């Protein structure tokens, strides 16, 4: 993109929204993208914000859905049961774009999406869900939570099968995108808000 093209893009709401989804989609596909791992924030039962890094597994622009994989026994799952509010943050240094997304999220342990996600997971990925006791449990000594017999080796399908019950997908439906573009000449900031009545993104500029 030449500077004039860049200037054209960052002064245009539609192109900036387009770019936001493009960056997320490439973040899903490219594990080297800085948007492949995102900070995902939930709110605990006592109202405390809680964030963690998660791998972006899928992006569906049509349904405004981002998918992450998770252990079904962890704290973020409990947080989402308390109302489902979610905040997702990423920064792409080459694109000079920060994306702050929010919406509602749900956990699915079963169903087509969870089944397909499980099938797509690598043996090592599946092995994480074998942790016993569950992730976050206090223990007396350092541990991976895995049976030593399965550590340090590529597990086979029979070994990872019992992990399926602990696996879930986190599906975040995005209804707000805050876009920040860093430019030498002066930053730009825009807000895109999903309008349920018109089924379209409303948009507007903000002072950066
Ligand atoms: C690079 C990286 C990628 C991670 N990816 C995931 C992920 O895709 N899903 C997940 O549940 N946790 C992932 N984690 C671990 C979480 O950050 C977190 O420690 C864990 O999920 C427990 O979080 P919770 O107790 O808040 O639910 C990842 C951590 C790092 C550092």
UniProtKB/TrEMBL annotation:
This is Flavin-binding protein. It holds the Pfam family Pyridox_oxase_2. Gene3D superfamilies: Electron Transport, Fmn-binding Protein, Chain A. GO terms for molecular function: FMN binding. It comes from Parasphingorhabdus halotolerans. Residues 28-107 form the Pyridoxamine 5'-phosphate oxidase Alr4036 family FMN-binding domain. InterPro entries: Pyridox_Oxase_Alr4036_FMN-bd, Split_barrel_FMN-bd. Residues 131-158 are annotated as: Disordered.
């Amino acid at each position: 993109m030449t500077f004039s093209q860049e200037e054209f893009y960052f002064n245009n709401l539609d192109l900036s929204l387009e770019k936001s989804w493009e960056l997320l989609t490439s973040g899903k596909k490219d594990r080297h993208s800085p948007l492949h791992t995102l900070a995902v924030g939930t709110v605990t039962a006592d109202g405390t914000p809680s964030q963690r890094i998660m791998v972006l597994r899928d992006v569906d622009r049509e349904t405004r859905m981002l998918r992450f994989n998770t252990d079904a026994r962890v704290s973020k799952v409990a947080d989402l049961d308390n109302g489902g509010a979610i905040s997702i943050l990423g920064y792409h240094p080459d694109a000079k774009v920060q994306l702050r997304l929010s919406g509602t999220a749900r956990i699915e342990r079963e169903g087509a999406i969870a089944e397909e996600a499980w099938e797509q997971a690598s043996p090592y990925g599946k092995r994480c869900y074998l942790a016993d006791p569950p992730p976050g449990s206090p223990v007396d000594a350092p541990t991976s939570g895995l049976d030593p017999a399965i550590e340090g080796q590529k597990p086979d399908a029979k070994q990872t099968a019992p992990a399926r019950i602990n696996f879930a997908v986190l599906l975040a439906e995005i209804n707000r995108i805050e876009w920040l573009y860093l430019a030498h000449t002066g930053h730009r900031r825009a807000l895109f808000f999903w309008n349920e009545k018109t089924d379209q993104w409303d948009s507007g500029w903000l002072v950066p």
